[in-house]
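Task 17 of the worksheet. Students: predict the tertiary structure of the chain below and write it out as structure tokens. Keep your answer in the requested format; marks are given for formatting as well as content.
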Amino acid sequence: MLDTSPVPTVPAADITHTRRPATTGAIRTERRAPTGVIRTHGAHPATGPIVRHPGDSLSTRRRVLYVILLGALTALGPFTVDLYLPAFPVLEADFRTSAAAIQLTLTGTMIGFALGQLVVGPLSDKMGRRVPLIIVTALHVLASMAAALAPSLELLMLARVLMGAGAAAGGVVAAAIVRDLFGGRRLVIMLSRLALVSGVAPVVAPLIGSALLTVVPWRGIFVALAIYGVVMLTCAVAFIPETLPPSRRHEQGSTTVLQRYRSVLGDRVFIGVLIIGGMTFSGLFSYLSASSFLFQQTYGFNPQQYGLLFAINSVGVVLGVQTASRLAARFGPQWVMAFSTAALVVAASAIVVCDALGAGIWGVMVPLFVFMTACGFTFPCAQVLALDRHGKAAGTAQSLLGAVNFGVAGLVSPLVGWIAGDAGITPTTMASVMVGCAVIGVLALWLVVRPKTVEQLAP
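Model answer:
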């Protein structure tokens, strides 16, 4: 049976010396070094490992368990947003409405997701991680069933807003738990795993949605999301411990929601990261919201071919995230973003140019793959810069990051349909929004974050 007991987060002053039985031939003591680092001594004190954060002492098995469970929680949000994208044309016909009206259900989901994070993040800093996670995930399950039974587009819209709010806890609490346990370069590695999930899930979700549509009607997609929520709720109750002890919930300078928001929003680098993250997500979701109409109606893809396209692009996200985690730990996340944000501008601009030259489907797919890979580089770096600087308010910081990402993306992505109007969505209308978002991200990096002013990560 897996060890699921809570991870000790004992204050340094309470750490005592302990001695193993003499028959083991080893003495184990833990003491606070002058630098504030906890040094753990085994049989060879000179080579004993340094424990800076609670998660440093976790076993490999326990760490893998956290990656799996927290990754699945993180994926609940993107799956809630994107799993039904292949059903957009079906919903348009079923409710006898316009493509723009169907896109508004996506906007409603993302706004609910953003608002939910603004509530869950501060609550998790005040009440601990488990209680908000359990309550809000239960809301997601109920809202998913309501969406599956919705008789009208208006009720579907309301259910989707509640689904977004209910899915908010997963990503916020998962990132906050990682920040509770880890710091420095190990934080980069752990957050890169979550960023891999949050980056790949939006691209893989339509592939799974396409497969579901071959065996169930569009309402079955929401039933599947309800089942997913039940599984996550069960895992949260059974396996995820409380990682924020009461003593840390009332530390000076972070006792109220207002104080937490003030400390986070007073950080210039964090503001810049918010803009970069929001613009990157907006570029990504501009593609996601328009792609169903672009590839299925303009280029004649069936749902399975459309899902395969997303699977190919997910490879780019995986490559970007995994490579970024290694480069960020060595060179700093701000310098990785210096290249990735520039790549976003180049790739999105290439789609516009190729469409003007009549390059066809390959003129869209190749630069689109580059764009998705650059997103994979950007996501984990933005998250590391946001959370590494605000350990005492990790839930609040993550909630703001997620709220801006999904809230701004929810407002920006419908611009593709608005620009296209009655002429239909084309690669140029989609990519023009992506270019604008990428340019704003580049300006935020160099004018607000200013990479040379950001300190390197601790070991």
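Marker's comment: The longest strand covers residues 29-32. The radius of gyration is 23 Å.
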